[in-house]
Specification:
This protein is an alpha/beta fold. Helix content is 48%, strand content 16%. It has a five-stranded mixed sheet with strand order 1-5-4-3-2, sandwiched between helices.
């Protein structure tokens, strides 16, 4: 409690402040009686000292030194019983007390020091008990809000009403997580500020651009991640009521965020596990792939662009463990950034790399623009660079496996060129890559049209005709070379080629016909 509140205790009437009245807001945590000249060595911060001044009756001027020493020690104030051993408090001691705003209280003769100690301690304990009860009730109120599913935002609204100040929950990058009011431009207030990584207790500061005072209270989210409860206005250390209320809020919010973070980590692990199994082709059927993909809002009939990203190496993170730890921090940050850019960007991690799957639809996000934005954020918040490799557009989710390999190859091309902070797009190298861009149903229709009659069944005879036709075209229509590669007689090759022409109703000497068949045979491998 404060000095001014001690003076209002009913059992302590008659005590009057005679000097240092400006310091009556000083906090009192304990009370002590002076019974020795060297009492100052046994006093503590925020302690109220009462005395009969017996040791100063012959040397009253030493009271000035006592006041000076108590001020340096951070004591709350000094109570002196006058008219006992000291007729009056020396003027120089009172003058110094006024200058230091250090309260000196005159104690009447009828009050014993023991009574003052007892009543003061009882008042302090009563106040502490009241504060503890309030803290428990506040904690219960905030806990009920979370348990009833009303959310952290509702908790912040209640906290804001209790302390009569706007409140916002931010992460370590000053990005808003939740806030109590929609009409407060918190990001503007924090423009250009950074939070010290070593901040472990509350701190108040002023924003130069707006002249606003803000107070930050740390909120733990995980072992490596921290958030902050930011309040517009300064919370004085002597404002015990507000401090206790905020402390209970930060505790409840911390547990709620730790739960959210654990669930988020579990969901991330499930997504990564599915995607890695998909890339490794460990699922038993396409139906299983489609079912698992649907759990993560991935549909096979959608088009996708696959992007592989990797943190560029630097001289400060040379070991594998260091690189993995830094990558984990940055990718955790990027996952939140990606969800803010567009909800149809799916995020995965694989070792030291991250994978972004852009779902292409009507509201298509500009892939390169989004990646540039992510590079800027990583550079700003982590002083690191990140590079990306972009695949071509796929027609289905099943094609993402090939797109992932393409994005990895694009990423490797930039690395081989010793680039940093680059965005490399994959360049298709042959006809197969171009054919992959065409929907599978269209490929199948073209294949059946170009090889009509031969591709309709899977008989051994049709398979031998297709194999012969493929080798024949690869050897530039050389009968002898075809027979040599197939280990058959040349007459067998002549018979099979004539049979193919008969079934197709076309001559293999026609260039347009052979082009269609060549493409169809390439498509055959894609459809297998």
């Amino acid at each position: 409690m404060k000095i001014i509140e001690i003076l209002s205790v009913p059992y302590l009437t008659g005590m009057n402040i005679v000097a240092g009245e400006a310091g009556t807001e000083r906090n009192v945590e304990s009370v002590n009686m002076m019974d020795a000249p060297d009492i100052i060595h046994f006093l503590h911060e925020n302690e109220f000292l009462i005395t009969t001044a017996y040791h100063f009756k012959d040397q009253p001027h030493q009271l000035t030194e006592l006041v000076k020493a108590m001020e340096a020690q951070g004591c709350a104030g000094l109570g002196i019983k006058t008219k006992r051993f000291l007729d009056k408090i020396p003027d120089d001691a009172m003058q110094l007390a006024n200058e230091l705003a250090f309260p000196i209280i005159e104690i009447p003769l009828e009050l014993s020091l023991g009574e003052i100690v007892n009543h003061t301690l009882r008042a302090i304990l009563d106040r502490r008990a009241t504060e503890l009860t309030l803290a428990l009730e506040t904690h219960k109120q905030f806990t009920n809000i979370i348990m009833q599913g009303k959310g952290i935002e509702r908790l912040l609204q209640d906290l804001s009403q209790m302390i009569q100040r706007p409140v916002q929950l931010i992460d370590q990058h000053f990005k808003p997580i939740y806030q109590s009011a929609k009409n407060i431009d918190f990001p503007f207030l924090l423009n250009g500020l950074t939070i010290p990584a070593t901040l472990t207790s509350s701190v108040s500061f002023s924003v130069r651009s707006t002249k606003e005072t803000c107070t930050l209270f740390p909120v733990h989210i995980s072992e490596k991640k921290k958030g902050y409860l930011m309040i517009i206005g300064e919370i004085e250390r002597t404002d015990q009521l507000s401090s206790l209320t905020i402390e209970q809020a930060t505790n409840v919010i911390s547990f709620a965020l730790m739960k959210e973070n654990a669930l988020k980590q579990l969901d991330r692990n499930k997504r990564n596990d599915f995607f890695l199994h998909f890339l490794d082709n460990t699922f038993s059927s396409q139906e299983e792939v489609f079912g698992r993909a649907a759990e993560f809002s991935l549909k096979n009939d959608k088009k996708y662009i696959c992007v592989s990203g990797k943190i560029d190496k630097d001289e400060f993170t040379s070991t594998y463990i260091q690189r993995i730890e830094k990558a984990d921090d940055i990718y955790d940050f990027l996952e939140d950034e990606v969800s803010a850019i567009h909800p149809k960007i799916h995020f995965f991690t694989k070792g030291e790399a991250c994978i972004l799957l852009f779902e292409v639809g009507e509201n298509r996000v500009n892939t390169e623009s989004a990646l540039l934005q992510l590079q800027e954020r990583v550079s700003y918040y982590y002083k690191n660079t990140i590079s990306f490799g972009i695949s071509n557009l796929t027609q289905t989710f099943l094609d993402v496996k090939n797109a992932y390999n393409d994005s990895q190859e694009a990423l490797s091309e930039g690395l081989l060129a010793k680039k940093k902070a680059y965005i490399q797009t994959y360049r298709a190298k042959d006809v197969i890559e171009l054919l992959r861009l065409i929907p599978q149903n269209d490929l199948k229709n073209f294949y059946e049209f170009a090889l009509s009659g031969i591709a309709e069944t899977s008989s051994d005879e049709d398979q031998s005709l297709l194999d012969t036709l493929s080798v024949y075209l690869e050897t530039h229509c050389q009968i002898s070379e075809t027979a040599k590669r197939l280990y058959v007689h040349r007459n067998t090759v002549v018979y099979r080629i004539e049979k193919c022409e008969e079934i197709l109703g076309k001559s293999l000497k026609d260039s347009e016909t052979t082009l269609q068949i060549r493409l169809a045979l390439r498509i055959r491998h894609l459809l297998a």
